[in-house]
Design brief:
Blueprint lengths: L7 H7 L19 E7 L3 H12 L3 E8 L6 H14 L7 E3 L13 H4 L21 H11 L4 E5 L4 H9 L3 H4 L2 E5 L14 H5 L1 H8 L5 E4 L1 H4 L6 H8 L2 H13 L9 H4 L5 H10 L4 E10 L10 E4 L9 E7 L1 H12 L10
Parallel strand pairs: 1-2, 1-4, 2-3, 4-5, 5-6, 6-9
Antiparallel strand pairs: 7-8, 7-9
Helix pairs in contact: 2-3, 2-12, 2-14, 5-6, 6-9
Bound molecules: calcium ion.
Calcium ion binds next to helix 2.
Length: 347
């Protein structure tokens, strides 16, 4: 049942690359870059995930859509533009989406991510402006125009994704893969039952998990393993302006999950980076198929991702990520960061 490496469906596609014919001299084929759209609410860990998506040579960041979550929609959109500027990718389109959950009042997290959403990081405003239009139209348009090619990664509340699925249910068949940072098979973080992204908009999450596709759930089960320990922060200190203007001040201002005892656990977790790293390197993660239902009615448990690892195969709707090779994860992430020009500019 437990599978080492979330390599099944993701890697299966890699096997579709034709083998070179024997007896012919062939140039080694450059691995195809995987097109990714990131729906996010930056957010410190979103910011670190955006930078990774820009930096990893196997990923082609085709767009960012924003959703209110960690801070309000105007701030998350401004943060997305600033982070792309720092990463040297102001060409990536940013399209803003839902400014509030489907049914509930907003539940933001400035106590975790700071008033700006980026902790103590002070980034200048990006030169580029957000693209016109709405995130839902962008998601449907881009993914519909390249069916089977784009991996959709959601690292915020699932409001935009739910609205897009209501508008165009075929989106669930058109994506190459769908990965979220959110949920937990165990305990939550904003409440004992619920993780933040799901707790903000449980109704949206219920729509998303019930859409007939497979949701790869990168939840607290795995993200709390990937912590920026003092050793990792020392390595970030070597990354020039990228380290000094975003990575370190972001993490310093980031309170993480106080109830989990960040200091005792070794450092703040970088939840959203795990979801994008999984797309780049699925072999570093362990996954278990399961049935996940989102609690929407519970007085104390709204937003809980009720996970049944014993569900019948036909009823499984999720691939729950349970573990990561932490050392290899940080080598991957910091190695990618190292590729950016900002990592070589004086801090
Ligand atoms: Ca996020």
């Amino acid at each position: 049942m437990r599978r080492r490496g979330c390599a099944g469906p993701l890697a299966a596609r890699h096997r579709l690359i034709p083998r070179p014919r024997l007896g012919r001299v062939t140039q080694p084929a450059a691995p195809a870059r995987q097109r990714v759209i990131l729906d996010c609410d930056p957010g410190i860990d979103d910011a670190l995930a955006i930078v990774f998506a820009c930096a990893h040579p196997g990923l082609d960041l085709a767009g960012l859509t924003t959703v209110s979550g960690n801070v309000d929609l105007a701030k998350v959109t401004r943060n997305a533009l600033s982070v792309l500027e720092l990463a040297g990718r102001p060409d990536v389109p940013v399209v803003s989406g839902a400014g509030q959950p489907l049914l509930r009042p907003p539940l933001d997290a400035p106590t975790v991510h700071g008033e700006s959403g980026l902790g103590a990081a002070q980034l200048p405003a990006g030169w580029a402006a957000a693209a016109s239009g709405h995130a839902v139209d962008f998601l449907i348009g881009e993914i519909g125009a390249a069916q089977g090619e784009i991996t959709l990664v959601a690292t915020g509340p699932l409001t935009n994704i739910a609205l897009a699925l209501r508008r165009e249910p075929r989106l669930a068949r058109w994506v190459r893969d769908f990965v979220i940072m959110g949920g937990s098979a165990g305990r939550g973080n904003v409440t004992p039952a619920a993780e933040f992204n799901i707790a903000v908009d449980p109704e949206a999450a219920a729509i998303v998990f019930g859409a007939g596709w497979r949701v790869t759930m990168v939840g607290l089960d795995v993200t709390l393993q990937a912590r920026a320990t003092p050793d990792i922060q020392d390595r970030m200190r070597e990354l020039g302006r990228l380290g000094s203007s975003l990575l370190l001040p972001g993490l310093l201002g980031y309170r993480g999950e106080p109830e989990q005892g960040d200091a005792a656990a070794g450092g703040p977790p970088v939840h959203d980076v795990c979801a994008v790293a999984l797309v780049a390197a699925p072999g570093l993660f362990s996954c278990v198929p399961a049935r996940v239902e989102v609690e929407t009615a519970g007085r104390w448990t709204a937003g809980m991702t009720v996970t049944d690892f014993a569900a019948a195969q036909a009823s499984r709707n999720a691939l729950v990520v349970t573990a990561v090779d932490v050392a290899a994860f940080w080598d991957l992430v910091l190695g990618a960061y190292q590729r950016l020009p900002a990592a070589h500019e004086p801090g």
